[in-house]
């Protein structure tokens, strides 16, 4: 992989931002506005973080959409709680309209980041090489990539199929058709929203 991938117009970045979700996009906007050279490293192939990665039927924001709306590019909607795909599209549109693509590197996963006091630089190791910068912003969110599958008594004897919501894609309901469904809920969480979708 070319070392150019980890530069901005051939120069080393001053700031490295990990993650191109809601926070990473906002950080990139303000850094661009201040003319600060930066890279946003995103391990997936699209921006939007959680809202692009989570695709199960019925996913939507369980908070008022104003919390996911940027002051510099307001989200206008008649709905308070909007579908996940709508939020993902809003984030893609915001990044596109504000010209952020030149700073985002897709498919670049951070393996390690260390601050080197002798150099006064962050050294960030990725799957495509190492990059250094004066500042590092961790905007990778707090949701794990692998879903939590709780242990429960009798799981080993269960002969049916265990499906985690994160394994489903938007609109995919065929896995439930003609089946009796047991929904295990750990928290008051997205599973409650999925119940309505699964019942259709």
- Helix fraction, binned, reads 10-25%
Shape: globular
The computed structural class is: alpha/beta
**Secondary-structure element pattern, one letter each:** EHEHHEEEEEH
Considering the protein shown, what is the CATH homologous superfamily of the largest domain?
A: FAD/NAD(P)-binding domain
- What is the terminal-to-terminal distance? 47 Å
Based on CA atoms alone, the radius of gyration comes out at 20 Å
In the CATH scheme, what's the topology name of the largest domain?
Answer: FAD/NAD(P)-binding domain
Low-confidence stretches: none
Content of β-strand: 15-25%
Q: Whole-number average pLDDT?
A: 83
Number of strands: 7
Number of helical stretches of at least 4 residues: 4
Strand ordering within the main sheet:
3-2-1-7
The largest β sheet comes out as: 4 strands, parallel
**Name of the level-1 CATH class of the largest domain:** Alpha Beta
Second CATH tier, the architecture of the largest domain: 3-Layer(bba) Sandwich
Give a verbal description of the structure:
The longest helix is centred in the middle third of the chain and has 14 residues, at 84-97. The model has no long low-confidence stretch (mean pLDDT 83). With 200 residues, the chain is α/β, with parallel strands linked by helices. A hairpin with a 2-residue loop joins strand 5 and strand 6 (129-133). 20% of the residues lie in helices and 17% in strands. The chain folds into 2 domains: 3-138, FAD/NAD(P)-binding domain; 155-199, no CATH class. The chain has a 4-stranded parallel β-sheet with strand order 3-2-1-7, with helices on one face. It has a 3-stranded antiparallel β-sheet with strand order 4-5-6, with no helix packed on it.
